[in-house]
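User: My instructor asked us to take a sequence, write out its structure as tokens, and then describe one feature of it. I'm not sure where to start. Here is the sequence I was given:
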Amino acid sequence: MGIRDAGTDDLAVWVDADGSIAVDVGSRYVTVDPDELDRILDRLAADGGSIRLAGGSGRADDGDEGPDRESDPAVHAAAYVRALAQQRGITVVADG
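Assistant: Let's start with the prediction itself. The structure tokens for your sequence are:
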């Protein structure tokens, strides 16, 4: 069973520390590119599903690094997922 065949009530999305985004396909998480994520979220919105978002919490900002070093790929990726979900009216629940 592939991701396109699975039910879409609740989609688990993992944001890794390197900023990659993966979705749960039942037995494991599979990394998806932005175009694939768009298609998945379009279908999820059409089916009235929601997202369980894990990862992407980032690190504590202690102010020790300059502005050019403050960006955290995981935080940006999680924000990207949230923005795409918001555009489509999909509820996002953060795990952890």
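For the description part of your assignment, you could build on this observation: Confidence is low (pLDDT under 50) at residues 1-8. Try explaining in your own words what that tells you about the chain.
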